[in-house]
Amino acid sequence: MRIRLISVGRRMPRWVEEGYREYARRLPPECALELVEIPPGRRQKGTDATRAVAEEGARMLAAVPPRARVVALDVGGETWDTPALAERLQAWMAQGRPPCLLVGGPDGLAPACLERAEVRWSLSPLTFPHPLVRVILAEQLYRAWSLLAGHPYHRV
Fold this sequence. Notes:
Elements: E1 2-8, H1 14-26, E2 32-38, H2 50-62, E3 69-79, H3 82-95, E4 99-103, H4 111-116, E5 119-122, H5 130-149
Parallel strand pairs: 1-2, 1-4, 3-4, 3-5
């Protein structure tokens, strides 16, 4: 299975790229994590960001493969602890529908992305900068996989 992380933003700081890469490379081929970067929509001073968010959303949805399970990262979504994420990951691997995780830009996800999502997942009630979310997601997916594999990385 290949998990596709579709995220708004390019040219991330080195610490983001290194953190993401570190955890993504730890995942085995049967649970590979692929990053698809979406260019941010154009924002101009003094204008509403709605148009930029809609442009980002259209590009994100275009990057979702057919039959994929769309999971929107949304502060208002469900919160999962590590065992619950591990259960989700196991179900995703068994069902054969690869998940696509959508991470919006600084103004969040487009309404079209939220409507397309089968589930909305909140990492926390806190708001994180969208580059940091890439690192958190990669680490949490690795942690969930390690729990399923009986690997000692995850400790309660």
